[in-house]
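Lecture 7 notes: from sequence to structure.

We start with a single chain of 162 residues. Read the sequence below before looking at the structure.
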Amino acid sequence: MSDDDPSLVPSGWEKRVSRSNGQAYYLNMFTKESQWDVPTKAAEPVPSSGPQKVSASHLLVKHRDSRRASSWREEKITRTKEDALKLLEGYRNQIVNGEKSFRELAAMYSDCSSAKRGGDLGEFGRGAMQKPFEEATFALKVGEMSGPVYTDSGVHIILRTA
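Now the structure, written as tokens:
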């Protein structure tokens, strides 16, 4: 067998030739890292850390300690965090019991401007939302709804849509 025989290269690696010096190098097809030495074992797939982007809807209930205690619904929000949680739990129960859809309740009661889209936030990646919101959303399965999630904006329930 010659050096050019692809069967000599362990699986997950590809033999290539450098354009700058004409020498052979080896590319790990999973990590895209390269090396000059012939690899001695198969390349391993990189474990997935989950999706890079998700889509979600949410229903936000603000309270007087929210970072901006006003919304399209109320100019000055005076409810306590506890009252916000009670409202949110009531909305969640209506969804779980099939009385109303997530979209309907978000459109009527969410303190976020996404209410006009039934709470739909569209697609977003890591780093785009406040950390507690991001962590909760990425932890949900598609179609799953969260319990209460606290952020500086208020208290949310989140529905992962994709």
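The radius of gyration is 25 Å. Keep this in mind for problem set 3.
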